[in-house]
Amino acid sequence: MKKLLPIVLMLITAARLSAQPAYALGDLMFNVNVGGPQITPALIKTGIKIWYATKWAGNKFNIEVKNSGVLNAKAEYAVHEDLGLGFASSYWNMGVNVDHVYGKNAQGQDMLDHYRYTMSALAIGVRGNYHFLTDDERKVIDPYYGITLGLTRYNYDVGFTSDDATRQLPIDTYQWRSGILTYISTTFGLRVYPVKFLAFNFEAGYDRGAFFFGGLVFKIHTKAPRFLRDR
């Protein structure tokens, strides 16, 4: 860690001496982020606990939640000195396994029902980022505010098995797909460029139930079209 720190400081110093600002007209940026903590798994786990405790008071059950976190991919083009426009997509997946002890067999061993709940969501939208500060002030850092408007779809699956082969749901698996729904996310962000074309990205806001995000930005500087430069 001590050896890494001088290298990072050298990269930041080199970026400061560069004539290329962190954000400029004509920049093309690609962003990948992972978000968390996510409120959705906590709410679902709490709801399932309350439902089981109410419906089968006194029975034992165990709940396990596996969550992917929110995965984001974004592309942005600097159409103005302070404004970037582009596209964004978000995805999350969560699995909930419930083992419910409903009784005992003749040998006194626990008999379990096994429920599997799987949920996922995919969203695609148009994103705009407003970038603060002036070009002279942001050689290395690029703070911004972004908002995404788009469409999303949810998938739900419920599966069931039991230690007792005679116990079953009307069908083994329930599947439900939502229609196309509207989607909105809004975040404040900060990009820090240790080198010209690579940044560490941090965001805080709300997207698919997550509040904090971290990731990388890859930037390509292009010459803006004349109609953008002549405005």
Q: Mind sketching the topology for me?
A:
Layout: H1 4-17, E1 27-38, H2 39-55, E2 60-67, E3 70-78, E4 83-104, E5 110-131, E6 141-162, E7 173-177, E8 181-195, E9 198-207, E10 210-221, H3 226-229
Antiparallel strand pairs: 1-3, 1-10, 2-4, 3-4, 4-5, 5-6, 6-7, 6-8, 8-9, 9-10
Supply the key terms.
231 residues; alpha+beta; Porin; 3 helices; 15% helix
How would you describe what is shown here?
The protein has helices at residues 4-17, 39-55, 226-229; strands at 27-38, 60-67, 70-78, 83-104, 110-131, 141-162, 173-177, 181-195, 198-207, 210-221. The chain has 231 residues and is α+β, with helices and mostly antiparallel strands. It has a single domain, classed as Porin (Beta Barrel), CATH 2.40.160. The protein has an eight-stranded antiparallel barrel.
| Tally of helical runs | 3
The best one-word shape is: elongated
N-to-C SSE string, H for helix and E for strand: HEHEEEEEEEEEH
Share of β-strand residues = over 45%
- Considering DSSP H and I runs of 4 or more, what fraction of the residues is helical? 10-25%
The top level CATH class name:
Mainly Beta
Overall tally of structural domains: 1
Taking the sheet with the most strands, its summary is:
8 strands, antiparallel, barrel
| Gap from first CA to last CA | 47 Å
**Major sheet: arrangement of strands:** 1-3-4-5-6-8-9-10
Number of strands: 10
The quaternary state of the protein chains shown equals: single chain
CATH architecture call:
Beta Barrel
What structural category characterises the helix and strand content? alpha+beta
Low-confidence blocks of residues: none
CATH level-3 fold name: Porin
Average pLDDT rating? 82
Radius of gyration in whole Å, from Cα?
A: 24 Å
